């Protein structure tokens, strides 16, 4: 038996007894349990696993029994038309046989991930159930079933009904990542959520608000939640706080309201129609991206201001923008932490000269440092008749003391664009860089290129910007016109 000398430290930091020098334990790394060793191997990059496999026969066996992940994908170009149904079934059967062969050979190995991607047909339900059964039986922590319908033209394609009955308490508590598409989720009434789940990614998933609440009910470690075209047709609402959620994406889910008690969130992504958003007014949000199909500008700003006022970097895109001739947005709420703002606006000729009213969002962001504004639909914008602009009274009391960088694309010299830029330049004493780009980065302006030549209108707009803005800019500002 190995004997160890015990050293005692006195209050004067003197050590009594014989010190231990170069003491080594008889326990070796390979003496650890098999599941612990495989866990270690799975955390190593592939290059290091290869190196470990040549150390000894023991390590070679350990590496051979561990597998990082299994990924199966049907090759592109499989036939789907009715006349090719027989050939399609034959190829799909080959794919199924290959998956089953690999699955049989992987019994007894520890696998980190199981991913499968192919076109779903109701005749493959039994095989999918077998693969789900395999995926939840070993030590697999991440599963992904990317399914898509055979006929994309069907309005309401069949969804694979996820077999919750195949999950036991061990697999439920082990799963850390679940990614599903074209799946129907209907958990049983006694289901209490996934306690170890870190990431949930659902796309084209058939699920109700109640079922989603059940699935998320016990996900206290959830960090990533993404819902893409999951037609909930209800509120997205939870009673329990998601204390560890860092990334939330809700994309075209046909919801009426978002109300989630999230304590801290790094990234929020929303695409869809304008709806009330209530997350956590007291939490700091690093990045927010909102893509709205059609909205009045002040209404969109109010939604963001009421839902995520402490955002630091905001991207707001409105495909069909409306600007009303009403008093500027005056609210006691402020974007007190907003530093970077990116606006992507689809604007019409009717609303382009109302553009200066967009400064309402700048008035609510006293600490803004960087502003980008990009336009689409530039084919109907035109050069203003005047080289100077009138200053509306509602812009007189605006100040942007921290604004350092302004970048506009899709500049066509319209009066509203020029008026907006002149105002910002005059009210930003700390401005360091102004970039005016006549190109449309959102959409190619084929109309202008066809009727005005590729560079005709762009050159005129560039000269317009230089003559109107160059005279009022400080020499300390880096001015770039493209």
TrEMBL record:
Residues 32-72 form the F-box domain. SUPFAM superfamilies: F-box domain (SSF81383), RNI-like (SSF52047). Gene3D superfamilies: Ribonuclease Inhibitor. Pfam families: F-box, LRR_At1g61320_AtMIF1. InterPro entries: At1g61320/At1g61330-like, F-box-like_dom_sf, F-box_dom, LRR_At1g61320_AtMIF1, LRR_dom_sf. It comes from the Eukaryota. This is F-box domain-containing protein.
């Amino acid at each position: 038996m190995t004997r160890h000398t015990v050293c005692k430290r006195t209050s004067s930091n003197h050590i009594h007894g014989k010190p231990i020098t170069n003491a080594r334990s008889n326990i070796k790394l390979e003496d650890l349990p098999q599941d612990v060793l495989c866990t270690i191997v799975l955390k190593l990059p592939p290059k290091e696993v290869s190196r470990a496999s040549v150390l000894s026969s023991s390590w070679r066996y350990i590496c051979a029994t561990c597998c990082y992940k299994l990924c199966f994908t049907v090759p592109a170009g499989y036939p789907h038309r009715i006349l090719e149904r027989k050939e399609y079934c034959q190829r799909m059967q080959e794919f199924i046989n290959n998956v089953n062969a690999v699955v049989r050979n992987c019994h007894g190995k520890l696998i980190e991930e199981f991913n499968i991607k192919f076109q779903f047909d109701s005749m493959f339900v039994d095989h999918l159930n077998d693969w789900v059964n395999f995926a939840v039986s070993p030590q697999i922590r991440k599963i992904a079933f990317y399914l898509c319908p055979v006929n994309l033209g069907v309005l309401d394609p069949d969804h694979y009904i996820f077999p919750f009955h195949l999950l036991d308490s061990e697999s439920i508590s082990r799963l850390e990542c679940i990614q599903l598409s074209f799946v129907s989720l209907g958990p049983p009434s006694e289901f209490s959520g996934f306690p170890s789940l870190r990431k949930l990614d659902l796309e084209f998933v058939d699920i109700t608000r109640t079922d989603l609440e059940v699935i998320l009910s016990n996900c206290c470690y959830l960090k990533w939640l993404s819902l893409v075209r999951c037609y909930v047709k209800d509120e997205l609402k939870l009673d329990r706080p998601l204390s560890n959620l860092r990334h939330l994406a809700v994309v075209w889910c046909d919801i009426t309201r978002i109300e989630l008690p999230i304590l801290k969130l790094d990234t929020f992504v929303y695409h869809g129609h304008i709806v009330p958003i209530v997350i956590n007014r007291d939490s700091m949000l690093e990045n927010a991206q909102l893509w709205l199909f059609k909205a009045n500008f002040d209404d969109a700003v109010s939604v963001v201001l009421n839902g995520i006022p402490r955002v630091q970097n905001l991207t707001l895109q409105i495909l069909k923008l409306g600007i009303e001739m009403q008093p500027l947005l005056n609210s006691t709420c402020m974007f007190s932490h907003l530093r970077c703002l990116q606006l992507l606006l689809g604007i019409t000729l009717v609303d382009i000269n109302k553009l200066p009213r967009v400064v309402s969002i700048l008035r609510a962001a006293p600490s803004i440092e960087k502003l980008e504004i990009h336009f689409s639909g530039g084919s109907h914008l035109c050069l203003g008749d005047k080289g100077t602009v009138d200053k509306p009274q509602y812009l007189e009391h605006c100040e942007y003391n921290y604004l350092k960088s302004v970048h506009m694309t899709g500049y066509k010299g319209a009066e509203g664009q020029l008026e907006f830029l002149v105002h910002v330049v005059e009210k930003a004493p700390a401005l360091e860089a102004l970039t005016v780009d006549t190109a449309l980065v959102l959409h190619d302006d084929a109309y202008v290129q066809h009727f005005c030549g590729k560079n005709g209108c762009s050159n005129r707009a560039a000269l317009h910007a230089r003559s109107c803005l160059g005279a009022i800019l400080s020499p300390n500002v880096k001015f770039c016109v493209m």
